[in-house]
Design brief:
By secondary structure, this protein is an alpha+beta fold. 46% of the residues lie in helices and 14% in strands. The protein is built from 20 helices and 15 strands.
Length: 677
């Protein structure tokens, strides 16, 4: 009978499923090169760092939790919290504190993490509420302080009449009104006041909705009449230098501009970040000197006329013409309640026909001017529209500021925790030591259990750690992620859980070896069956991480993020590295022949050599002969037991053809049927 040779290929059903490992290695290399290139370019040309940014508990600083102060039965909305976060962030950034983390917590509180220890002023800025008020504009100009040119007294001014004839001197006196050149310069010195043009960036026109709208900006640039007192005209009777200002007739009366107020306006430098902090506790019934939010313009404003609490709604949209056609110009729509409707009607009725800048009203939020539109129509129904040089984003931002300013929120400090940099460094050192000990234990177990194959576990964990590190650098740079102590715990647990996937895979391959397969076949069949278990396990881990991230608060979210990240990386490395590398190892003699130190020796797994080869079409007669010489038939029986039905039928037919073995063949056939059943 011809001798059959063992077949190391996968059996039927898996023969075509043996994939080539090369393309998967290429994909893994491409991912590493791409991430390394992105992060490397960020380190060279941007603000990326070679190490992940650390959170407050690892680098030290102060964590303040703010709780809103509300009346009984009131609730805070997410929009109000987001607006409060934006205002607090602007205040903190304007103080020069960098890398502050300000977020909402639990849909109610606000967490402010500062990398420094705040003083009392910073704490007050964090707690202070943001008030929204409408004030009339009395004066406006560039944000820089006025430059006063001082003349050198030692330098004599030349006499312009020197060298002229008597007739020329008389003509010069007629032109100068009898004053000399120096007197003319002193008379013109009041021209230092800035121009009263409305800021095109600060706002637009306030008009009644669906009403015919006049030309936007009408009246700007025209010279104010001489009877307008104060800075808008040239009547010295209303100048700010008077010792006794006239009684105020209305909030737009320029007589409110006293000498002290005007000096404060002249000295105000809106380019200084200190003046853009906001949070000022201004008197709503007194004039105010303020800057625009971007610092480009400064204002003198009259007393408050309309409170932000009277705004019923604010939204952004697009301008609709008098014919009902919608344009592409973004606008902000305002709607007041009954009290605000009456107050806003009185304001627009008074300022609509006034000269610039008295026809403007300023929207003041947190002590800074958000917008200063020009009133172009009398608003009687409480529905106004602000238009101007808006973009979609700026219009939406202004609408949110107006809407959320209707219910200003004040906060109280619920808790404040200070962590020193030394303590944070100790936490980081302890986390690294704990992670190192856990990694050593995992490596030791892998080498003890799987011998040389344990090195595949170690290298796979190393690849998982490297890819996770690159992803942490990317999210830290692009999305502002900060690695916390809880995040470190998530990384350690995630890397440890990655070893579970390798154990499931290796044990499934061992089971296939025990069933009589060769290693190459066992690797393919074991992967097909093990990956279902691995996917199910990782899906449960990922579900837990997602639920924790969205439902938990504080540092628990950092734990959930890093654990979910390692779960994704683990599955990716199993597909692109661990399984392809095992395929390569199975083709070597060291692993393919079952070396005792390979970790895949069938004899170490409790399988005898003859039984191991019996399922691979071994010559049954040769096995029987060897067993008879040794005086025992255990190996032959084991090989016969592992034969398939087809092999048993072929053996019975061969025995029948050789003659005299029919009985034996029938016995074998009968035994085979019993085994099969």
């Amino acid at each position: 009978m011809p001798e059959t040779q063992p077949d190391d290929r996968p059996k039927a059903g898996y023969k075509g499923s043996e994939s080539r490992p090369g393309p998967r290695f290429l994909w893994l290399g491409f991912i590493f090169v791409l991430l390394s290139g992105i992060v490397g370019s960020g380190i060279v040309w941007s603000t990326a760092t070679p190490t992940p940014e650390l959170a407050l508990d690892l680098r030290g600083g102060t964590s303040i939790i703010l709780e809103p102060q509300l009346d009984e039965g009131e609730n805070v909305t997410p929009e109000q919290l987001n607006e409060a976060v934006a205002i607090i962030r602007q205040r903190i950034d304007s103080t020069g504190v960098s890398e502050a983390e300000i977020n909402t917590q639990g849909g109610r509180n606000i967490v402010v993490n500062l990398p420094v220890y705040p003083d009392d002023r910073t704490r007050e800025l964090v707690r202070a509420s943001a008030q929204l008020r409408f004030r009339p504009v009395l004066m406006t100009g560039p944000g820089q302080p006025a430059v006063v040119q001082q003349e050198d007294p030692a330098q004599e001014q030349p006499d312009p009449s020197e060298g002229l004839s008597e007739e020329g001197q008389r003509y010069l006196e007629e032109l100068t009104g009898g004053q000399d050149a120096e007197g003319s310069q002193e008379a013109d010195g009041t021209e230092d006041a800035p121009a009263e043009e409305s800021d095109p960036e600060a706002g637009g026109a306030a008009t009644q909705v669906a009403a015919p709208q006049p030309e936007e900006g009408a009246g700007e640039g025209e010279a104010p009449p001489a009877d307008v007192p104060g800075p808008a005209g040239q009547n010295p009777e209303g100048s700010p230098g008077e010792d006794q200002p006239a009684p105020m007739e209305n909030p737009s009366d320029p007589s409110q501009i006293t000498e002290e107020l005007y000096a404060e306006y002249e000295a105000l430098d809106c380019s200084d970040p200190e003046n853009l902090i906001g949070g000022s506790t201004d008197d709503p019934h007194a004039p105010l000197v303020a800057c625009s939010q971007d610092g480009s313009t400064k204002f003198i404003l009259g007393p408050m006329e309309v409170s932000g609490a009277t705004i019923a709604d604010a939204s952004f949209g697009y301008r609709v013409t008098s014919t009902g056609a919608q344009t592409n110009e973004p606008v902000v729509n305002l709607e007041f309640n009954r009290e605000g409707t009456e107050q806003f009607r009185e304001v627009t009725q008074r300022i609509t026909n006034m000269q610039p800048p008295y026809n403007q009203f300023a929207i003041v939020l947190d002590g800074l001017v958000v917008s200063a539109p020009v009133s172009q129509a009398i608003i009687t129904d409480g529905r106004a529209q602000i238009s101007g040089s808006f973009t979609r984003d700026s219009a939406e931002t202004l609408a949110n500021q107006l809407k959320n300013g209707s219910l200003p929120i004040s906060f109280q400090v619920q808790s404040e925790e200070q962590i020193s940099p030394t303590l944070g460094a100790d936490y980081l050192r302890s986390a690294l030591i704990a992670g190192g000990i856990g990694l050593v234990l995992v490596i030791g177990y892998a080498l003890l259990q799987y011998r040389t194959l344990g090195l595949l576990t170690v290298s796979s964990i190393g690849v998982v750690a490297a890819l996770t590190y690159l992803l942490l650098l990317l999210v830290s740079w692009r999305y502002g992620y900060r690695l916390s102590l809880a995040g470190m715990a998530g990384l350690i647990i995630g890397l440890g859980a990655a070893a579970d996937s390798f154990i499931v895979y290796f044990e499934r391959v061992r089971d296939e070896l025990r069933s009589g397969r060769a290693l190459r076949s066992a690797v393919e069949v074991g992967w097909e069956r093990a990956r279902r278990t691995i996917y199910a396990s990782k899906a449960v881990n990922m579900l837990a991480a997602v639920i924790l991230y969205f439902l938990a608060v504080g540092s628990v979210r950092g734990f959930a993020f890093t654990m979910g990240l390692t779960v994704i990386v683990d599955v990716l490395i199993m597909i692109l590295f661990t399984h392809p590398m095992f395929q390569v190892l199975a083709r070597t003699r060291f692993f393919g022949d079952g070396h005792p130190w390979s970790g895949m020796d069938p004899r170490k797994l409790g399988v005898k050599k003859a039984a191991y080869r019996g399922a691979l079409n071994i010559d049954l007669d040769k096995a029987r002969t060897v067993s008879e010489k040794r005086g025992r038939g255990g190996s032959a029986k084991e090989a016969r037991r592992r034969q398939t039905i087809v092999e048993r039928r072929e053996a019975a037919a061969a025995a029948a053809r050789s003659g005299g073995g029919t009985g034996s063949g029938k016995k074998d056939g009968t035994s085979g049927n019993e085994d099969e059943s």
